[in-house]
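Methods — Computational structure assignment.
A single polypeptide chain was analysed. Its primary sequence is given first, followed by the predicted tertiary structure written as structure tokens.
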Amino acid sequence: MKLKVLHKPLGCLLLFLTTQIAFNSRVAQAQIKVAPATETKNICPTQLGAAVDEVINRPQYSRVRWGILVQPLYKRQNLYSRDAEKYFTPASNAKLLTTAAALQQLGANFRIRTSIYQDGIGVLRVVGRGDPSFSDTQLVELAKQLKAKGITQIRKLIADDSYFQGDIVSPSWEWEDVYSDYGAPVNSLIVNENLFSLNLIPQAVGKPLQLAWTDFNEARLWQIINQSVTAEEKQPGFINVSRELSGNVLRIQGQLPAKTDPFLVKVPVVDPNNYFLRRFRTALIREKIGLRETAVISGGVNQQELAFIESSPLSDLLMETNQNSNNLYAEALLRAIALQPKKPEQTTVNAGLEVLKTTLTQLGVNPTGYSLVDGSGLSRHDLISPEALVQVLQAMAKTPAASVYRSSLPVAGKSGTLKNRFKNTPAEGIVQAKTGTVTGVVSLSGYLNTPKYEPLVFSIIVNQSEQKAKALREGVDEIVVLLTQLQRC
């Protein structure tokens, strides 16, 4: 799963975003290669228990908590079960529930609309509805639509962020995650995934790294304390970017070897509404449309729509959510299914979670099998049993949208967060599963088309470990490879 972050102001604490780099891999990609070197063999169902136990009972996993359930896809028969009914921290496996509910509620062709309304003479109001894919490209298109309507001057541009109610960052996310690119804030008006970026460029050995901003509007807002250095060519590289929450100060620390490529750093924006307005101003200037002032105001009467943009269909949004384990997309989709109107005191997230539970219960998923507080799985307060995950996967396989749901999942050794896992093993190409990783947690749940047995569904979750994710994934992947070797006996 993609690295995860928190979205929400946390007072005057000093937060640190640490982007550890090891040159051949960027830290923002949490799913790293690990392919178990398991010998090809055949396993009878009666032998599976002993084979899996041999893996999880190894000394290196003696303090690890495992939750595992393996069943045939089309029947509730346990081929292997260990604490399957108990709660575990799921990490990004929570996205399986969010995307299942979104697909059932909204349909594969659903699109998220961003609109511009006339709000008075010379006054325009942009209404966002939480499109996580919205970018500068769409802003330019909106500007072109306005130009085609004969608009060359805007007296006031209002950003209406009222569609989503509640915190833009989950209060339960850990503060160490808040300022990584995987933890950007989620609001009604999202642009460029609510991230800004800059490149760090090596100079002569001993000199500080040069900062090259991709957006000069953002450069003017930040005070930079550059404590980085250019190291000799064969030295390792590591970068720490810390940000003071109560002020616009970025501290750059670490080193990059000389003559290496620039390193791209992405940082969540502090104020997504005003970031949206700054980016829109740039798009309007490009189309020679003047803009005098901007404001952020919640609510208004949607009367005359002057321009609009729709997202790609939900089927495409699901692909990004599950294939690349995109937290921002998952959080936006959870909010998208929230029913209107909500209770005055209810947040959009809580309303979405109610719809999620109702939807999955109608599919036959036991509502006591999980307890979620967000849509992405970034929160350590999320709890799901392997049994619930298997039930979701089985239930979705019986719906008309089964192929859309399944195709959104990474394929072992081929795509998404599984692209570099299971290479050159029997699992390559025949496992479609959702990954999950946060500190001390590794999870993998999905579908498996066994060559000599019937299709399977499985959930494997590892919790409460001090080991690195790579070591835990090796055990998980070895179990999955064992499953590929099942045969009828």
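Note: The chain has two domains: 1-25+112-311, 31-108+315-484.
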